[in-house]
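Exercise 7. Given the components listed, write out the predicted structure of the assembled complex. Treat all entries as one system.
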Amino acid sequence: MSHKFQNDYSVLASPRILEALSRYGQEENVPYGLDRHSAHAASLIKEKFGAPNGSVYFLSGGTQTNLVFLSAALKPFEAVISLGSGHINVHETGAVEGTGHKIVVVPGKEGKMYPEDIEKVMATHRDMHMVKPRLAYISNSTEIGTIYTRDELRALRECCDRHGLLLFIDGARLGSALTSKQNDVPPSLIGAVADGFYVGGTKNGLLFGEALVVNNPSIAEGFAYHIKNRGAMLAKGYAVGIQFEAAFEDGLYFELAEKTNRMADRLKEGLKRLGLPIMDSPTNQVFVTLPKGKAEAFIAAYGCELWEDQGEKMTIRFVTSFATEEKDVVELLDFASSLI
Amino acid sequence: MSHKFQNDYSVLASPRILEALSRYGQEENVPYGLDRHSAHAASLIKEKFGAPNGSVYFLSGGTQTNLVFLSAALKPFEAVISLGSGHINVHETGAVEGTGHKIVVVPGKEGKMYPEDIEKVMATHRDMHMVKPRLAYISNSTEIGTIYTRDELRALRECCDRHGLLLFIDGARLGSALTSKQNDVPPSLIGAVADGFYVGGTKNGLLFGEALVVNNPSIAEGFAYHIKNRGAMLAKGYAVGIQFEAAFEDGLYFELAEKTNRMADRLKEGLKRLGLPIMDSPTNQVFVTLPKGKAEAFIAAYGCELWEDQGEKMTIRFVTSFATEEKDVVELLDFASSLI
Amino acid sequence: MSHKFQNDYSVLASPRILEALSRYGQEENVPYGLDRHSAHAASLIKEKFGAPNGSVYFLSGGTQTNLVFLSAALKPFEAVISLGSGHINVHETGAVEGTGHKIVVVPGKEGKMYPEDIEKVMATHRDMHMVKPRLAYISNSTEIGTIYTRDELRALRECCDRHGLLLFIDGARLGSALTSKQNDVPPSLIGAVADGFYVGGTKNGLLFGEALVVNNPSIAEGFAYHIKNRGAMLAKGYAVGIQFEAAFEDGLYFELAEKTNRMADRLKEGLKRLGLPIMDSPTNQVFVTLPKGKAEAFIAAYGCELWEDQGEKMTIRFVTSFATEEKDVVELLDFASSLI
Amino acid sequence: MSHKFQNDYSVLASPRILEALSRYGQEENVPYGLDRHSAHAASLIKEKFGAPNGSVYFLSGGTQTNLVFLSAALKPFEAVISLGSGHINVHETGAVEGTGHKIVVVPGKEGKMYPEDIEKVMATHRDMHMVKPRLAYISNSTEIGTIYTRDELRALRECCDRHGLLLFIDGARLGSALTSKQNDVPPSLIGAVADGFYVGGTKNGLLFGEALVVNNPSIAEGFAYHIKNRGAMLAKGYAVGIQFEAAFEDGLYFELAEKTNRMADRLKEGLKRLGLPIMDSPTNQVFVTLPKGKAEAFIAAYGCELWEDQGEKMTIRFVTSFATEEKDVVELLDFASSLI
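Answer.
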């Protein structure tokens, strides 16, 4: 059977992550994330991402991480600003609203939020009859695979400061963003601009788990209670701590992301060479718009996702992962070639 | 360093579980629990626990599983009946209340709920000024390691039927309960009496994960949406599916539980032989009441938990797990012997 | 001081409502809405609005009524479909999200929702990663004073039926809608098409209170518990029951609404005669777009609301109420005349 | 028909309250509690109750007021300490849990909470697996009509300070408490010890409404947004403001309470003279334990509440109100006399 290009979480884990789990498989560890592996992983992450005063918590998935952080950061009447296409707004089954908070939607451009988006929200939310916007939520890489530049992140931070807003970065695919050839954001800038962010494991070769960095002390108070209250405290926290330790003690995390991007770049080049109209995206999501029949052939053969149905044409999405190999890309390109 | 007797989730996983994860480590699987391993595990669990019409979902931890099920089963004004000592009432940081529901507390006896507990609640909750009790929550084994008999479970079911109540069984330690030497409950009775229950993995040798069986069709509708809404949907659902498949395809689950109980029995016999006053508990939690100084020595050496501080005396708890070996018990007993 | 045209809830109550309250001021009544006045008012409302099997509850305000009904009708992962301009979406400070539910926004036309709006939502909400739309929320009259026709309401009902959706009508200004000269909806159609609706008192001359009709038996079960759980149960329910009894036993409710509309019509005619560009709106909200300076003069003199700031021009809103008199309209028109 | 002694909210309002409403019945007022009457009433209340820096909000009922304040004061994982008999714990249909917070129950004595109750809770709630107690909730008068002394309130405040806890006083019957013959608490002490409290109108002769005083600036921030978010913002806030202005500008509030207590005292003396075993209660709730048959005769004739059913005996409760007259008490005592 062919390798699928459906997403970046269809293969369990990098062999090196599985080895780490086996290595410590019979070791006794303190539960609830208070173990030495979690502590070590936390300090590696804080150093790498420029968050010396942050607190790191290991959770089991992205939706959970978003809802845990946002519900800790906001009062009942406070709202999140997000792009309409934001993961929390579309693909989390109302999890943020489930904790009681409205998401105020802005248009953005190319999947990214800009200060002008925030300014417009703040100009119209002026009294107690509307929610009080309190936090800007962005993803890097974004839902359509684009990435923020250094200047864009700084401008957002300044805008948030002007309005007393918090800034949260959903880093489900942070590895892919920061190892993109087009990236100019150093990891340490993430900690410098965000009140909270997470470093995604599930979509970057870990068996499961996300590392949430609570980077604003006023939110960190009592945070472990909050995690437990939301059902997100892992008894075997060290199961995730061991993985992030392995991912960050020798650069594995970025190696996996870099390889993922490399495969996506190979794929984009190949598709371009075949004359297919691919959307410009610098990370591991590749969007192509094709006539309906051809799009459906790709979907059938490679499980890639139908992103947008425009009737006669369809935009489909290919995703590469740590487990995508050169030969898989070659096979897909052969298939594409035969299809045209 | 000595083996700790602090709890049953301090060691990552049974080697056979880790092997299963490695075996399928590079296989491609459909995400969100829609894979073949999860389907296979679900059918094994439904068969074993007498729930042919149940729906099985794999979640990441016990508190999460409890809150997901209870918040799906209850309307906003409906309440849960639980023992005061119930896990949801004491040790889940208000997670059930966090989803909006009151827990109505009953005393029970020896850690177990009886029909008379329920009758008293129903007699006093008669109008719209009080919550409407709608579900009885019990654990098997209980918080103090006791287990329900066949007749007790049936009597609870009948009582619930009389009052239009749902019955939920928290099976964080269901393996230990059903393999206890004193147990007379066949696994299939669980599915026969419960509207919902879970089969605990975290505390029985799995790396992580609980198998929730939604056994009442009126609650099952839209349940996957509900799981996602609560942040509990695992992208790599197959990571838990693979483990439960391994646990139930050849009896591993009960083997691990049986060994855990055997080690606890060895420990209880040994302590008894030393003349120590142990509480009668037929599963893997062993409670002993000792003079303060001796209790503290045990806590320091074996990480066992202070269960109740009565001033001059202390009740401490030893827990065995799949990873406890004969030699660990022997060492602990030697220490106990030297202490007396 | 001039009569203000800011809104329809700036004057306490119609003298006839105050008389009714005084008449029963020292009478003993059963609390919690179980009194004879509430029962009588409920039966009058059910008859008038074609809801023979509905249950009527008297609540204290519109936002409360909306959140009480919606949170009773929806499971945690279910969502409301509303216009972007919908009261629940803009002017209730996130109260619906506060009970855990996402509002899915549709554009509509002229302040009204159409089946095509619903169709588009249903076409894109197809799996468990997105919320499950379950209820369409509309207002009559709408936020911009427009009203639904008989055919439009029936078409919405049919569309809801096709998709298994509930339909809720926010009737904060239902009186004004149903007594508009352009209205072709008989009151009984409201009960025929809606699973729930409320008949607004606060904005139609009552001291306070809304009559919520729960018209779908599956939602009505346990509803009084739900009201209390949300803090919306009035101890002196009869305080609202007496008012609605007075409003419906001899036609006062529609008399007040009809007069309100008449004053608005007088105002619209007068403004039109002065050549001012008024938006076509058949109820008691009158929208005019004026040069900034003139708009601000009106705001200063009559407290009318700035509806939309387009820079050089501003749209402002005048609202008439039961307390608006001919002379007030004449005075406003004189002012308008002098301004031009 | 006889005057009922069922509760203190069966008669609409004191004639003087109704007069005030009529007096301002056709006056135009700014909505949402921003009117001059509400401002005046707020300043009278702040002065009377020693809360110069408090913020006053007028809400529609007691359960609503409790849930609004508590949900604003607490983070998701924080809990309320309350007596088991506390109104929020028994008679509010889980409204506090409905906002996500656990109520930790303490026994107290004679309906009152003592520092030792709090100390025990704080001693057992020591880690993130249990909720974090954050606020002590008491009522004055209590559920069984007892009242706090000056020293008791001060001792509670000190205890709360020691543990970083907030103190909230439910004043549904604060008038009755502070005008009791046994009372030694000056009104100004309420503001001196409480982070929040409310002055009850519904149970003290107002048509409806409670005055919530948010007395801790850290909770007051954004409070109006919070009220609206909970559906508790009254469009015609001045409807309550006018009543509290009338109640506090010339002492009416305490006059009504004092009369209520006087009637209760008359009743207690009379019942005592008849040799009936009445519970000692210094406010307007009178508890008597009688043989079942006699208790039931009282219930049938006077609508008084069955408080506790002990089988052969029953404790019943008589409540006096602003509307109870001497002749009503005489009639009841005649009935009692004839019954014995």
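Discussion: Chain C has 15 helices and ten strands. Residues 197 and 294 of chain C are 39 Å apart (CA to CA).
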